[in-house]
Automatic annotation (TrEMBL):
Pfam families: Vit_b-sht_shell (PF09175), Vit_open_b-sht (PF09172), Vitellogenin_N (PF01347). Residues 17-654 form the Vitellogenin domain. Keywords: Disulfide bond, Glycoprotein, Phosphoprotein, Signal, Storage protein. This is Vitellogenin 5. One of its GO terms (biological process) is cellular response to estrogen stimulus. One of its GO terms (molecular function) is lipid transporter activity.
């Protein structure tokens, strides 16, 4: 019985407003943003008003706000009160009290009408009230779900209707999931090229939006009367997992019935225009920067003021507020008319500094006005080609991509631009990018936008215009519209088209053009890509590029398994290697959006042979690596593809790509690709492509062919390079024979040196500042109140540098420097004075709040970084005397050379963290300090977001420490016979046997030569015979024939290493690094290098130049024979404290070519031995995982020995002896063949033709 009564009641639930009456309600709306915890800052607005509703006709009503009041909140919750926004209320009062008209039938709001004098902002506030009245009530159900239209779009809505017979009212609860909408009203800026990572937010969401509506209704004569309605809406955002804390934008509405009046609402005397529906109407929010920058009163005058500030305060070094001023300039230009901008340009175009700042700011404005301005100024000849390209590339990426701005890019057809191929390519690529962004904003975008490009591609194909076909394919690739699939397929090889007759590079470009289409419609692209991969009649490069496209489209398990199965019978090893390495690298991927592909790859890899792991690196390869941190929802991925050719040694193509993940979004940040198609085709026609020769011969022939570059073809590009940013190709360059000729036949090195010397003698003074709006990412969402909520991130940076260089040249350069000879140049003494002040300032703003032309209330976090690195140097180059000196001179530095400030949401928290860390650099008396300050909200919650919230700063200072001042730092190099004179401290080592040093070495070489003649395989010996006897039989048998020296030779080497060349042999060169102090105390180090040609001996001695410091580092090396070399490193007082000796030799081990390296030490620092013992504990597991056999034996305690043997050019045997164990592994497969002869020598010879070509181009003829 109860169910029947309820059904009857529900049948009557229809909101009623009887004609001839005015229904009066009290209305309050509140919107508050920030972190929902006590003691943290929040910002927002509140609106109070009375609402009068009157019926004009049965389905048409008038609504008027009476006595509206607006309050603002900017404080620390919850104690701080709302403050009346008197000026704002006064400014909007007239508009707010204009009645609006709307259609309303059966609880559903229809069209909305208002006079032209009602701004979109005010009308949206009315929509917020009408949104409460939107009720889709069903007559036969009390619990149901539907997609309901509202101010925020058409979203999933759940209804629950119940009655309370005792209170005689009906309760309706309506909840909206704003994250699941058929049509969501929102605006995104700077996110067009990002991909939504749905898998990243399946379990963890960065943005949660929900709204709950509660109604109390009382029965009326023809329906029900809404007596009270409350709305609670929450938008919760965190860049990390929301369980770690999130910022909230909270909206609340209350509509309470007061009374019924007989005085009707009367419309004003004006035309009521149709102003859309209940859905929120965007106005100037896009042009309105959410940062509280300034009050714009007179934009042209304010632009001039900001320009003057930027020019005047960023000369010597960057001003700390320069990024903020640059953002202000952009904001002012956005609200300016074309006439205003024209006037400012006319005023400053002839002033270089102002001109540069304007040209850097205008492209970032992002309005159609700017595209038109840039176009007109270039066609009028007021912009240079580099200025136009720079401005256009940025402007095309920043401008709002609507139909009007897309039509502006028709300038590619203009006669002046058509004559410049590079410029036309930039415009065309930008056209494709604009279509891509437009289709993100309007998913139903028309394919007609691409019809001009389709026509260009068809016409170019009919004329066989390869350059035009390539450009059209790249434009279609940028646009990524599914309608382009058919035109692209006409250019794909092997699909019953005439594309097989097109050059290989065109076929590859056609396949790459499918990549952005695959992101939108993977099911359309996957069959095409798989068919291309499996078509053995196609060129291997085409098949491998198709493999890249296939895996980027995220194929299913079935597709990947089909590919793996087909590869079992594949005959082309490049294709096999590429696909196998690609699948294997995908098995390790951890990014959520690639989880299904990783699972498919793990299944497929089991279907393939593990022998493919041993394929050489000369075969094509693919590699993918990534890292994803789920709790913070951040990650990065990198991909690298190398497509090789069986016929030549040069890779056909190399591609590298970086991808990033953040807060549920993903983007291909950067991609660079290089192709050598023209060079490959030329090499295939040369002897370098002969398959019968070994790899070394191929390398020689390839180098010879490249050296004879003049014989390369003129009619095709030799190589090409492209760059993609955020998945869009922004530039590509084709390198042909003409470009190579310009490089090779350009200025000779001596001419460049002469020109540089002339410029230095005249002096160089250079100042430059470069601003950049590095990021502008915004999401604008309407709220239930009718006021938009905005989440935004801005990053701006300004770099500045001033450089002054002056040179004194003795003797002075001749007036006609072209007549200067090389001999004159060698006798030149150049003294240089240079001072530079590079600096950079960066500011980042993160904003959450309300942002309209009339109302702004937001919580903002700001980070600032400023770094200054001044340097002043003097240099001298006396070429004749071989003396070169560089001096670092004292320079004035600001109080802080580096500072970072992060001013987040204000907090009321316990005492902040303050710390100062200082470090004094000894000898040069410089002290560096870092001051740290942190005041965060982690006391509320121990989560990452709360550690960020607060005020943080870090400042670095450099100042003179206590002690004698340092006049300068010197680095001097002396080459040649005068090197000994420049040494500040003579080398005096403990060396009692120096007269016999050379005799020992000469005797040693005689013994070695005799040994080489009588013993092609030297017998094994060692300094510790006992340790050798402890080795197992297997180890000793594997090295029964050894290549090390015998005990007698070891003795000679040990004696030899005690001998020092100084002072009997003059140094070859000397290097002195020192600090020159006012007390003239010597501080620093000197290096002396010696070479004794008769004994083939090299020695380097590094020593302190301080008076009582005998610390030295000695390196001693000698070539004992063509197979043997030895070296010793000793350090400590007089090089007597610690020592390590290394011996390397090559020869034959048994019957195999081999090499051995031995390290012996006498004494080592305790730190070294301690860490070595710790590392040795991990050797066993590492060796096991690497496939080594491990044998525990007591080898020498102070020696490490590594023996490598080559049974053939493709395999390697390894024996590694360390104290306490011996590791070995036999038959290790090598990726490349080692060109080694049976006697152990390398069979590598430098081709005389190549050598002569290199020498000819190094020195002038």
């Amino acid at each position: 019985m109860r169910a029947v009564v309820l059904a009857l009641t529900v049948a009557l639930v229809v909101p009623e407003f009887t004609p001839g009456k005015t229904y009066v309600y009290n209305y309050e709306a509140l919107l508050l943003g920030g972190l929902p915890h006590e003691g943290l800052a929040r910002a927002g607005i509140k609106v109070n008003s009375k609402v009068h509703l009157s019926a004009v006709t049965e389905n048409t009503f008038l609504m008027k706000l009476m006595d509206p009041l607006i309050y603002e909140y900017a404080g620390i919750g919850p104690k701080d009160p709302f403050v009346p926004a008197t000026k704002l209320t006064s400014a909007l009062a007239a508009q707010l009290q204009i009645p609006i008209k709307f259609e309303y039938a059966n609880g559903v709001v229809g069209k909305v009408f208002a006079p032209a004098g009602v701004s979109p902002t005010v009308l949206n506030l009315h929509r917020g009230i009408l949104n409460i009245l939107q009720l889709n009530l069903k007559k036969t159900q009390n619990i149901y779900e539907l997609q309901e239209a509202g101010a925020q779009g058409v979203c999933r809505t759940h209804y629950v209707i119940s009655e309370d017979p005792k209170a005689n009212h009906i309760t309706v609860t309506k909840s909206k999931d704003l994250s699941h909408c058929q049509e969501r009203i929102m605006k995104d800026v700077g996110l067009a090229y990002t991909e939504r990572c749905a898998e990243c937010t399946e379990r963890i969401k960065s943005l949660i939006e929900t709204a709950t509506y509660n109604y109390i209704m009382k029965p009326a004569s023809a329906g029900v009367l809404i007596t009270e309605a409350t709305v609670e809406e929450v938008h919760q955002f965190s860049p990390f997992n929301e369980i770690h804390g999130a910022a909230q934008m909270e909206a609340k509405q209350t509509l309470a019935f007061v009374e019924i009046e007989k005085t009707l609402v009367v419309p004003i005397k004006a035309d009521y225009l149709a102003r859309g529906s209940l859905q929120y109407e965007f106005a100037t929010e896009i042009l309105q920067t959410p940062i509280h920058l300034m009050k714009i009163s007179d934009a042209p005058a304010q632009i001039i003021e900001v320009l003057k500030h930027l020019v005047a305060n960023n000369v010597a070094m960057v001003h700390e507020d320069a990024p903020l001023k640059f953002v202000q300039l952009i904001q002012l230009l956005r609200v300016s008319t074309l006439e205003n901008i024209e006037a400012i340009w006319a005023q400053f175009k002839d002033k270089p500094a102002y001109r540069r700042w304007l040209l850097d700011a205008l492209p970032s404005v992002g309005t159609p006005v700017i595209i038109k301005f840039i176009k007109e100024k270039f066609l009028a000849g007021e912009l240079t080609l580099p200025e136009f390209i720079q401005a256009l590339v940025v402007a095309l990426q920043m401008v709002t991509a609507d139909l009007d701005t897309i039509q502006l890019t028709s300038l590619a057809m203009h006669e002046k631009i058509a004559k410049m191929p590079a410029l036309r390519e930039v415009v065309m690529l930008g056209y494709g990018s604009m279509i891509a962004r437009h289709c993100v904003a309007v998913p139903t975008c028309s394919a007609e936008l691409l019809r001009p490009i389709h026509e260009i591609a068809a016409e170019a194909t009919s004329k066989n215009d390869i350059r035009e076909i390539t450009l059209a394919l790249k434009v279609l690739g940028n646009a990524g519209h599914p309608a382009s699939l058919k035109p692209i397929m006409k250019l794909l090889p092997g699909l019953r088209t005439a594309a097989s007759s097109l050059p290989l590079r065109v076929q590859v470009d056609a396949i790459l053009a499918l990549r952005n289409i695959a992101k939108k419609e993977p099911k359309l692209v996957q069959p095409v890509a798989l068919q291309l991969v499996l078509d053995r009649a196609l060129h291997p490069e085409v098949r491998m590029v198709a493999c890249i496209v296939l895996f980027e489209s995220k194929p299913s398990v079935a597709l990947v398994s089909s590919l793996a199965g087909a590869l079992k019978t594949e005959t082309n090893m490049h294709v096999v290697s590429f696909a196998y390495s690609h699948i294997k690298s995908l098995t390790r991927i951890t990014a959520p959006d690639m989880a299904a592909v990783a699972g498919a790859a793990n299944v497929a890899i089991k279907l393939m042979s593990r022998k493919l792991d041993r394929l050489s690196f000369r075969f094509s390869r693919a590699l993918q690596l990534d890292y994803y941190h789920t709790p913070l929802m951040i990650g990065a991925a990198g991909s690298a593809y190398m497509i090789n050719d069986a016929a030549t040694i040069l890779p056909r193509a190399v591609v590298a790509k970086a991808r990033a993940y953040l807060a549920g979004a993903a983007a291909d940040v950067l991609e660079i690709g290089v192709r050598t198609e023209g060079i490959q085709e030329a090499l295939l026609k040369s002897p370098a492509a002969d398959e019968s020769v070994d790899r070394i011969t191929k390398i020689k022939r390839t180098l010879r062919a490249l050296a004879n570059w003049k014989d390369l073809p003129n009619d095709q590009p030799l190589a090409s390079v492209y760059i993609k940013f955020l998945g869009q190709e922004v530039a590509f360059v084709k390198i042909d024979k003409t470009i190579i000729e310009e490089i090779v036949t350009g200025p000779k090195p001596r001419e460049l040196l002469k020109a540089a010397l002339k410029a230095l003698q005249e002096g160089i003074a250079w100042q430059y500042a470069k601003p950049l709006l590095a990021a502008e990412v915004r999401r604008i969402l309407p709220t239930a109140v009718g006021v938009p909520m905005e989440l935004s991130l801005y990053t701006a940076a300004v770099a500045a540098a001033s450089v002054n260089v002056k040179a004194t040249i003795t003797p002075p350069l001749p007036e006609e420097i072209e007549t200067m000879t090389l001999e004159q140049l060698k006798k030149t003494d150049v003294q240089l004075q240079a001072e530079a002040r590079p600096s950079i300032a960066l500011q980042t703003f993160a904003v959450m709040g309300v942002n309209t032309a009339l109302i702004q209330a937001a919580v903002m976090a700001r980070g600032k970084i400023r770094t200054i690195a001044p340097v002043k140097v003097a240099a001298r180059a006396d070429i004749l005397k071989g003396n070169y000196k560089v001096e670092a001179l004292p320079v004035e530095v600001p109080e802080h050379i580096s500072s970072e400030n992060q001013d987040e949401v204000p907090v009321r928290a316990p005492a902040p963290f303050d710390k100062t860390l200082c470090l004094a650099v000894p000898y040069i008396e410089i002290k560096g300090c870092v001051e740290l300050h942190s005041h965060n909200a982690a006391f509320i919650r121990n989560d990452p977001l709360y550690y960020i919230i607060g005020q943080h700063s870090a400042r670095a200072t450099v100042a003179r420490a206590e002690g004698p001042a340092v006049e300068r730092l010197e680095l001097e190099v002396q080459v040649g016979p005068r090197a000994a004179e420049r040494l500040l401290k003579q080398i005096s080592l403990i060396d009692e046997e120096t007269p016999e040093g050379k005799a020992f070495l000469l005797k040693l070489k005689e013994i070695l030569e005799t040994e080489d003649k009588n013993r092609p395989v030297s017998s094994e010996s060692r300094s510790s015979s006992s340790s050798r006897s402890n080795r197992s039989s297997s180890s000793s048998s594997s090295s029964s024939s050894s290549i090390s020296l015998d005990q007698t030779l070891i003795m000679f080497i040990t004696l030899f290493c005690l001998q020092y060349l100084a002072p009997h042999v003059p140094p070859v060169f000397a290097v002195i690094a020192r600090a020159v102090r006012v007390d003239h105390k010597l501080l620093g180090y000197q290096l002396a290098a010696y070479f004794d040609k008769p004994t083939a001996r090299v020695q380097i001695v590094v020593s302190s130049i301080a008076e009582n410091d005998n610390l030295k580092i000695c390196v001693d090396g000698a070539l004992l024979s063509k197979h043997k070399v030895t070296a010793k490193l000793a350090w400590g007082p007089e090089c007597q404290q610690y020592a390590v000796t290394a011996k390397a030799e090559a020869g034959v081990l048994g019957e195999f070519p081999a090499a051995r390296l031995e390290l012996e030490w006498e004494r080592l620092p305790i730190t070294v031995t301690t860490y070595a013992k710790k590392m040795s504990k991990h050797i066993y597991m590492a060796a096991f995982q690497a496939g080594f056999r491990l044998e525990r034996v007591m080898n020498s305690e102070k020696e490490i020995e590594l023996t490598l043997a080559l049974p053939n050019q493709r395999s390697l045997n390894v024996i590694f002896r360390i104290p306490e164990m011996t590791l070995s592994r036999m038959g290790i497969h090598l990726p490349y063949a080692i060109p080694i002869n049976p006697d152990g020598s390398l069979s590598i010879q430098i081709d005389e033709d190549i050598l002569s070509w290199i020498q000819r181009h190094i020195k002038e003829e």
